[in-house]
Amino acid sequence: MGNRQEILLTGAGGQGLILASIILAQAAVNDNKNVVQTQSYGPEARGGASMAGVIIDIDTIEYPKVVNPTVLLSMNQASFNKYLPKIKRVGECVVIVDSTLVSGPFREEYKIRGYPITRTAREEVGKEVVANMLALGVLNAATGLVERKIFRDSIFELAPKGSGELNQKAFDLGYRLYESGPGQHIGQSAQTPQ
Amino acid sequence: MPHIWCPGCGNGIVTAALVRAIERADYDQRDVVIVSGIGCSSRAAGYLNFNTLHTTHGRALAFATGLKMARPELKLFVIMGDGDCSAIGGNHFIHSARRNIDLNAIVVNNHIYGMTGGQHSPLTPTGKKATTAPRGTLEREFNLLDLARGAGATFGARGNAAQPRQLEQLITRAANHKGFSLVEALSPCPIAYGRRNKLGGPVDMLKELKESSISIERATSKEETELEGKTITGVIYQDEVPEYAAEYYRSIGKEIPVKSGG
Amino acid sequence: MPETKPVLMQGNEACAEGAISAGVRFYAGYPITPSTEVAERMAARLPDIGGVFIQMEDEIASMAAIIGASIGGMRAITATSGPGFSLKQENIGYAIMAEIPCVIVDVQRMGPSTGVPTAPSQGDVMQARWGTHGDHPIIVFSPASVYETYYLTIAAVNLSQKLRQPVILLLDEVIGHMREKVTIPRDSRLMVEKSSDKVPADYKPYDEKGLTPLVPFGFGHYYHVTGLFHDQYGFPTGDPPQVERSLDRVHEKLEKYRDEVVLTNYIGHKEPRVVIVTYGCTVRSARAVVKKAYWNNREPVGLLSLQTLWPFPDKEVREIAKKADVIIVPEMNMGQIVSEVERHVKGEAEVVPLNRYDGEMISPDQISDIMGRWLS
Fold this sequence. Notes:
By secondary structure, chain A is of the alpha/beta class.
């Protein structure tokens, strides 16, 4: 199980996290890894707290569900509240939140990293819809789950027709966002637990 | 030939009209398929020397839709009874009409479930008695042709077992029509329906069928009051709308083999 | 599509691809969660390869339409889930009686009734076996991965053609919806097993001598197809000896090919003390446990996974029972296949059910807990 990465991509329905999870999974396939992708199918997938899980491993993947997240991406407040408590190894799980839409509380022991993902998509790309690809850029930069070039190619392969380059641009922007470091007040706040 | 039909039943007359219509259309025997549901009239399929498909109750049109889509060059005649078609099979009936798929539906309407011994159907006239309506049914009946019309049928005709030549012509015209066609064939059931409703024997019932009918050609020149109590026969409506199977094959760029006759 | 490079594919999509690889060119269906992706994939793919996709007015019509298409000579499939599967039962019986090849996919969800439409379950095992009325043989496969879904669909289509009987593919929501890496062979035509095309002049579609290919309608061999008991030419009969012979015959043809139909897989210790017998997505949890216990720790455990549920792998289960002290049967229902296991084990081993019916998968922890208890 040592190689097993369990990634949870969470947010509101419509933020494109299911597509993001499929692209991440396909990128991992293209990177010669074993992958299983699952997602929430209930009404919550159309709003509220939608969830997609991706498991990446060198070994064969048996149990297909995320039980012990190693990476959590949270793109809205509802999903942050719902999925943060699912983390079992607090401090070891990489937690990335979209600070445009998630306001905390950011407990120190979680080592949460916040990036203004949606705001950057809106202001620098001019399209909020690419926030999902931007998030993948941040996530992959932070974790190195998939080789960067393979990931970029996979985005082009799976993005809706005509939007490949735009989505790749957003992915690269995610890398830049990561490299410029997490937002100031995030990750250092010592707010009390809810 | 041994068969299951009671003396005085109209099923044989309707079946014979169908066979003559097929002969008249000059189809190759191998291209004709008879599909039927469950009920007295549906047993006709087993008495005909074609590829014949006796399906489940109410589902004849759904089986036929699958077969027609797989083999659009075949000529399908679908025999159903009134309960089979309009009650348990009502959904398939309206949707076949809506799709305008080239199936020739022949509904033998004897106003009763005969095989099960005389229960009322959606085509039993209000007030008529049945084993499950011993005091006369309170339900209103469908006008089958109107029902089909409302669902988008492009060919609707009505004939009866008392006028088999006309019925044969109607089936021929239905066969030639590209699209879903409905022929309602009124037919006597002296045993399960006539006797209980005191309609006399087979001869009386046939006589009554004939006398109460008026062809659409003659009806058009009559006043409405003169038509009261009359059943209009003939081709009641017909229009040209793209046929579903042909449209599907055109859309996927696949040719349908051309067959003789029709 | 079909290509040799590994791709990410959903179970439902793999089912559609498997069907196409096996020569299926007709799909009729009605939208229902969690099987809809099979229909959507077919709707996208079939028109390009000369196939027919039709969305019917209801579940019953979909079942009827695939039988109609099959009689016309097109390989045909439909997909549904619990409630729709219930509606299809009468016509499944018809296909058994009339010996018309077809494949029915049931992506199981939590029931009864509307239940939890998006939650997985393995509650249709007995419906798949006995859903239609009367004594009848049935073939039911239950895959545990996306790739297994692909090849079991191919097997289902080919066996259905060969034995002229419906085959049911029992997926569950987990397998139907999950995406997984699969490698699908390029030359799909190789997957189509042709049944014999030798037809005698005196063609008997229901020849008492044994398997006869179905000559589709429209080729000049006139016969009758009915859900009534029938003679060798398909014409109705109620003659008691003929009725009995007829029913025996449909069972015998399956018994004869039993070893081709019954697929199972065993991993683990050669002399196991505890064996898990399971199927569908639950195999994955069990395999995680057995791999760890046997491969890492050499514990005397094993896993018999059943790809075929019906006809029940009786011989295989009996073999295991001779060696093992305990057989654990985890299922996502209140206990369906477990009684079948008990019936065939005949007391030779302790049979322990493990049931979960809250709409969640059985976890590896649940299995290792119970296994540990029996090992210590």
